[in-house]
């Protein structure tokens, strides 16, 4: 593939200029259903675990909920026009399970299916490829009440849900993505407790991780059996770039990365992962045949990247540092089996408004490592972006130069990866819109489009104008 720059032009700070992406490279943006849709109790939608969690006092900053969010459910046509204006090749969105099957299993809610059918048709009419994620964290509350992801029955329910979507929408979806960041679902939801449903049970977190892996495999089978178009198949993982002591890095890689890439891409749980977590669980939830089911071919692996971690083995003296980038939750851990052994060291800045370090070299390192481990697996950056404390100028503009710089540097890293032989197919900026940022509510803004949550006005930020230039020319703007 032809690219303008050669490796010897590379700047140490990842602020290269004039870089052209290969023809056919996908530029898109991404959102998630609970973060943008609102309409929480309309047209037959039932509560999800995030409705319950966000309405529980003390769980979300400011007592915010996704009840209205960006009101995308009602404003989707204008939002699609905005995507077309931004020159997007593709839009990555998620489908709300409680809109489709409000009772978790059984009766299908046609109004919910109709919404996504209209959305997909509207995208296609505008020349934007629909990339649909089945699960971006909004489990029907009724399924959590029955045990949630630590319960194997949830996998059966997810397989049925996948079949419903494949039948209804699989003639028009460009790419099916089974799960978004199962690490977050399993470990933040069931281990650390900072995400819905807010449980702090390390053994349940590992059971949830396995059942999410199994749900991925069974959903792929169901989608392939029901989709009448020719969609591509994918999953999105948030893989951790851990640096520091070799043993600490190995442990975090095992529970944070290989717990998912192992079964999905190789059909195994590595022996060191099993050993590291032996004090937590015997892995009895893994049944004969599960690993074969999980290990399905995928057309593209989605990679979400924001920052790095620095880790070391804790010496037991003094308080253990826990700077892993997630809201602290008393009594919970996102690292079962290693939580009392590894510490996450505070990292040098600069940082985003989330407190995450800005490290475009970490993205390049991650893409190289995936190429080396899985040389035949095409990759897609499915989320990358930054929250900053945006200021609206007197004329209504948002001059978010820090975000522009963040995007420029990370897209430079993506371009370098392609030069280095990584089969990278595209980049989706997180996020299209400022939205409900989970436990942080509306306090953190990731959008390249500003949303005024009082009147729902959309304002394209400087970063949005910058991304439009990139998407329409294929060249990183100055």
Largest beta sheet, briefly? 8 strands, parallel, barrel
Along the chain, the helix and strand elements come as EHHHEHHEHHEHHEEHHHEEEHEHEEEH
State the share of residues found in helices, binned by percent.
25-40%
Termini separation: 23 Å
Number of helices: 15
Strand content: 5-15%
Average predicted local confidence, pLDDT: 96
**What is the topology, as strand order, of the major beta sheet?**
1-2-3-4-5-7-10-11
User: What structural category characterises the helix and strand content?
Assistant: alpha/beta
From the alpha carbons, calculate the radius of gyration and give it in angstroms. 21 Å
Low-confidence stretches: 1-6
Secondary structure: number of strands: 13
Instruction: Please state the overall shape, judged from the principal axes of the Cα atoms.
Output: globular
């Amino acid at each position: 593939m032809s690219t303008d720059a050669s490796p010897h032009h590379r700047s140490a700070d990842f602020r290269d200029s004039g870089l052209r992406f290969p023809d056919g490279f996908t530029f898109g943006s991404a959102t998630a259903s609970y973060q943008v849709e609102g309409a929480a109790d309309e047209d037959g939608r039932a509560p999800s675990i995030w409705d319950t969690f966000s309405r529980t006092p003390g769980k979300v900053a400011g007592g915010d909920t996704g009840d209205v969010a960006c009101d995308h459910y009602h404003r989707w046509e204008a939002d699609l026009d905005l995507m077309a204006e931004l020159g997007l090749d593709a839009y990555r969105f998620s489908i709300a399970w409680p809109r489709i099957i409000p009772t978790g299993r059984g009766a299908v809610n046609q109004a919910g299916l109709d919404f996504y059918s209209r959305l997909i048709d509207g995208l296609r009419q505008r020349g934007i490829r629909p990339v649909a994620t089945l699960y971006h964290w909004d489990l029907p509350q009724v399924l959590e009440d029955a045990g949630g992801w630590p319960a194997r029955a949830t996998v059966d329910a997810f397989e049925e849900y996948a079949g419903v979507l494949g039948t209804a929408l699989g003639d028009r979806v460009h790419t099916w993505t089974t799960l978004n960041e199962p690490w977050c679902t399993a470990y933040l939801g069931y281990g650390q407790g900072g995400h819905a449903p807010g449980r702090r049970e390390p053994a349940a977190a590992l059971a949830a991780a396995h059942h999410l892996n199994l749900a991925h495999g069974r959903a792929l089978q169901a989608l392939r059996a029901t989709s009448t178009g020719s969609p591509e198949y994918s999953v999105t993982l948030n893989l951790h770039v851990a640096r520091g002591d070799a043993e600490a890095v190995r442990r975090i890689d095992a529970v944070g990365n290989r717990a998912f890439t192992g079964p999905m891409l190789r059909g195994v749980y590595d022996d060191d992962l099993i050993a590291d977590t032996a004090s937590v669980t015997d892995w009895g939830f893994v049944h004969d045949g599960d690993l074969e089911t999980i290990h399905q071919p995928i057309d593209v692996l989605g990679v979400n990247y924001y920052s790095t971690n620095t880790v070391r083995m804790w010496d037991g003296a003094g308080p253990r540092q826990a700077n892993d980038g997630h809201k602290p939750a008393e009594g919970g851990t996102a690292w079962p089996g290693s939580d009392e052994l590894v510490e996450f060291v505070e990292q040098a800045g600069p940082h985003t408004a989330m407190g995450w370090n800005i490290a475009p070299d970490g993205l390049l390192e991650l893409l190289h490592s995936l190429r080396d481990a899985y040389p035949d697996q095409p990759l897609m950056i499915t989320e990358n972006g930054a929250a900053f404390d945006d200021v609206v100028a007197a004329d209504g503009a948002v001059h978010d130069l820090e975000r522009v710089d963040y995007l420029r540097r990370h897209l430079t890293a993506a371009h370098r990866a392609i030069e280095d032989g990584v089969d990278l197919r595209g980049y989706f900026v997180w996020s299209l819109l400022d939205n409900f940022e989970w436990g942080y509510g509306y306090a953190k803004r990731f959008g390249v489009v500003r949303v005024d949550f009082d009147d729902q006005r959309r304002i394209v930020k400087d970063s949005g104008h910058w991304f439009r230039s990139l998407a329409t020319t294929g060249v990183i703007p100055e």
